[in-house]
Structure formats: structure tokens, C-alpha cells
Amino acid sequence: MSRRLAAIVAHPDDDTWGVAGTVALHAExxxxxxxxxxxxxxxxxxxxxGSGATPETLGAIREEEDRRSWLVxxxxxxxxEWFHLPDxxxxxxxxxxxxxxxxxxxxxxxxxxxxxxxxxxxxxxxDHITVGRAxxxxxxxxxxxxxxxxxxxxxxxxPQSWLEDWNAQLGAAGREPFDPEQLYHPRGVxxxxxxxxxxxxxxxxxxxxxxxxxxTQMSExxxxxxxxxxxxxxxxxxxxxxxxxxxxxxxxxxxL
Length: 256
Description:
By secondary structure, the chain is of the alpha/beta class.
């Protein structure tokens, strides 16, 4: 059985945070094909002190950081597309053009599973929300073209219980908790909405090493060595509809 995965994200490092563990678990699987699309190069993102990047060079540097992250992880994408839409302004671009560009990749690749952002964009980032909506629309457009592939659409999410645990840790350390009402702060989804929960603990150290390649984005507050947190990835099954009471899957391809 084929195991073809496509991840459609907004910025470099969205992919590392969201799916690197899942990809690493399948790294040695000869049936696994991994397609990655970045809609922007992240050129309007933060610049960590000492990273050496400038506003003029940040986009190119972040693309290289992302490539290094997959090399370090040990499983580079089989196909990697950069759309180079303007960072922090994806919602201002022609929406139909974005949907069709994603659809072109999905038609060519026919992935079994597509992963993107859900309606909350995890952090409320407008780029995340727009990319997630466009990918979902492209998925359903292409799904009707043929019988092959596009068997599951997943939204990368943060379970509410994880967010509550993180906030408790922040409070214990004397730091401000995350506020889901604020832009760029994480939003949680109800734990009972989860459809797939992947145990990435066997490859968590590799995921950490991959994240550490995103030097421009790692402020002191962002740095983490919490392998327990990195050792799990959660998804809502956006399509097909998940029957109430269905067991939570342990792999993105399970049951296909």
C-alpha cells in the first residue's frame, strides 16, 4: 500500500513543528513519499539576536534553515515547492490563484493524506488560516477528479489539555500564560475532537535537532528541550467525517 503524504504550510518551521516527527517515523519506509509546500518564505518573521539575518536576507536564510532541518532529521521531502507569496500578507493575495496552485500539486502527486492548518491556524495567524482554508478547498476540488489518493485530510492542532499543561508550567516559572484571545498565541481544541495522535517519542531527539536549525526563529524564550512535548503530534480528521466515538488513530495512514 502506498503511503503518500503532503504537508501544505505557510512558513519555514511550521512543517518542522507540525509533521517532522510523523515523517521521521516513516523515514525508512520504501512506500512513503513526502511532498512539502511552503506558501511563503517567512521573510517577515522575527530575527533572533545573533542569527546574522537581516530583513533583506531573512527569507533566503529561512529557506536554507528549513532545508537543513530535513537533512538533520534524516528524511528530506521527495518534492519541495516554494510559492514565495508575501509573508504576513497571504490573505491579501488572489484566493482562487492560491487554491489552484495547491490543487496543481495535489493533482500531480495524489497524496493519500494531506496535512494543513485548521480554522484556528493553531496560533490565529492569518497566513496559517488562509493556507489551511485554501488547502482544504483544493483537497476537495481534486478529490473528485479520480479515485486514486486524497483519502484523508488532517488539520494540525494543539489539544486543549496540552495548552493547559503548558500554561501551568509557565505560571509555575513566573511567566505569563498563553492567551488564546491574542494573535500568535496558541489555541487549543477539545481533546475529544482529536482523530489522530502520533507518538513521536522514538524520534523526538531528531525532531529537536531539526527545530534547532531554525536559528533565526529561536529566541531564548522559544528554545525548548522538552522531548515529551516534541514526542507527540495531534490532528483533527477534517475529511472523511469521523463517526462519533471512533477510536483515536495512532498514525496518519492508519485505516486507509
